[in-house]
């Protein structure tokens, strides 16, 4: 009798395990389907948005694209930081942009920030022409191939136009400020910030004055304090706390727009926690 009961119990257990095995793929499939139907906020830019190629805080350096995830309700929207360290508006468009554009769908959002790697000679490297105008130049590379080079603002508009064609709402952020000060105690304003604003106006993107918002925060302190709190090795790349400051600036700028993206922001105070707990 006892053997029969044990056998029956084993049968029930086996059936239960089989049901679980069948349910797990089903639940996983439902979760993946839900993720695909939610809108996605794609974020692109340079190392001040995602440091390095992985964005995992190597050397204690972080871009704002990581902490900003914490400000959105990710049950309702996906946030994908596709930025890459070392890129600029021209180089990113040629190499990393096509698969991102392919992944976009109607109802998604694009937020972009370039400028810190766009200072070089456009004839010699991968930088754009300076400015936000419509002028172009044809250059011949070392491999003998010709390329039509746009201005910085022209490249920003190109991202927006291509994304808008797929029904994506776009935001252009001015570049984060460097920890560089004038003699009278003000953060040096970047001309790229003005060009980003002009580009946004031309192509119908929302403009987020990230450079100005963060600069005003820094100016509530002084150069030495800002360096000690937010910068490690140079005057450009921030630690986690500095990345949070810039992420908060982006959120502040977003709240000042009329975009529907605002409805996905979480309410209340948000305090993003360093994923590595300060261990570097």
Question: What are the defining features of this structure?
Answer:
7 strands; globular; two-stranded antiparallel ribbon; Rossmann fold; 8 helices; alpha/beta
Distance between the termini: 62 Å
User: Which CATH architecture of the largest domain would you pick?
Assistant: 3-Layer(aba) Sandwich
Number of strands: 7
Which homologous superfamily in CATH is the superfamily of the largest domain?
SGNH hydrolase
Q: Strand order across the biggest sheet? A: 2-1-3-6-7
Q: What is the global morphology?
A: globular
Helix content: 25-40%
Q: How many whole angstroms does the radius of gyration measure?
A: 23 Å
Run of helices and strands: HEEHHEEEHEHEHHH
> And the CATH topology of the largest domain?
Rossmann fold
* Average pLDDT rating: 90
Q: What class do helices, strands and sheet pairing give?
A: alpha/beta
Any overview of this molecule?
The strands form two sheets. A five-stranded parallel beta sheet has the order 2-1-3-6-7, with helices on both faces. It has helices spanning 2-37, 89-95, 97-103, 152-164, 191-203, 210-218, 223-230, 240-255; strands spanning 40-45, 78-81, 109-113, 137-140, 146-149, 169-173, 206-208. With 280 residues, the chain is of the alpha/beta class. It has two domains: 1-37; 39-264, Rossmann fold (3-Layer(aba) Sandwich), CATH 3.40.50.1110. Mean pLDDT is 90; it is low at 17-34. Helix 5 links the parallel strand 6 and strand 7 (206-208). The radius of gyration is 23 Å and the shape is globular.
């Amino acid at each position: 009798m006892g053997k029969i009961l044990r056998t029956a119990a084993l049968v029930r257990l086996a059936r239960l395990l089989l049901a679980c095995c069948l349910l797990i793929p089903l639940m996983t499939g439902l979760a993946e389907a839900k993720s695909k139907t939610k809108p996605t906020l794609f974020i692109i830019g340079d190392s001040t948005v995602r440091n390095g190629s992985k964005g995992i805080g190597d050397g204690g350096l972080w871009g704002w694209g990581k902490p900003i995830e914490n400000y959105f309700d990710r049950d309702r929207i996906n946030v994908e930081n596709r930025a890459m360290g070392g890129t600029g508006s021209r180089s990113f468009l040629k190499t990393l942009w096509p698969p991102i554009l392919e992944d976009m769908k109607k109802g998604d959002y694009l937020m972009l920030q370039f400028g810190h790697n766009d200072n070089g000679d456009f004839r010699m490297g991968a930088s754009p022409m300076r400015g936000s105008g419509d002028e172009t130049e044809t250059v011949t590379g070392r491999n003998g191939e010709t390329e039509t080079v746009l201005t910085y603002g022209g490249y920003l508009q190109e991202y927006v136009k291509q994304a808008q064609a797929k029904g994506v709402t776009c935001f252009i952020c001015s570049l984060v400020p460097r920890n560089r000060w004038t003699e009278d105690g003000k953060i040096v304003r970047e001309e790229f910030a003005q060009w980003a604003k002009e580009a946004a106006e031309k192509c119908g993107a929302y403009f987020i004055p990230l450079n100005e918002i963060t600069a005003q925060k820094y100016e509530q302190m002084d150069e030495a304090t800002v360096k000690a709190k937010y910068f490690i090795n140079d005057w450009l790349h921030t630690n986690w706390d500095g990345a949070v400051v810039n992420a908060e600036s982006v959120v502040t700028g977003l709240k000042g727009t009329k975009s529907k993206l605002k409805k996905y922001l979480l309410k209340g105070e948000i305090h993003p926690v360093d994923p590595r707990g300060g261990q570097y």
